[in-house]
Design goal:
Layout (H helix, E strand, L loop, with lengths): L9 E5 L5 E11 L5 E10 L5 E11 L2 E5 L4 H22 L1
Antiparallel strand pairs: 1-2, 2-3, 3-4, 4-5
Length: about 100
């Protein structure tokens, strides 16, 4: 899989109940210590009308990517920071 095109891709994830759901990649980035992160969405909205997004770390594997849960606050803060920066850039471009 060419991970240079990950942001243009969609894929299926397995949910806890065993069903599959198609999601779209919103953005990918690499941390300073070379760990890969992915933000993706199922294109559903929450009760406030915001697009639901999810984040995971990932490793490249032969047939795609292996999603790895984010399990610490430091990594979540990094994802939040990158999302805020991306949102600010989009808003700046819209002006």
């Amino acid at each position: 899989m060419d991970t240079n095109n990950l942001e243009e891709m969609s894929f299926e994830v397995m949910l806890d109940d065993g069903t599959k759901k198609r999601v779209d990649v919103v953005l990918t980035f690499q941390s300073e210590d070379n760990r890969n992160f992915m933000v993706y969405t199922d294109n559903e909205q929450d009760d406030e009308g915001n697009l639901k997004t999810y984040a995971s770390m990932y490793d490249e594997v032969e047939n795609g990517v292996n999603l790895i849960p984010i399990e610490n606050d430091k990594d979540w803060k990094l994802v939040e920071l990158v999302l805020k920066e991306a949102q600010a850039e989009v808003l700046k471009d819209e002006q």
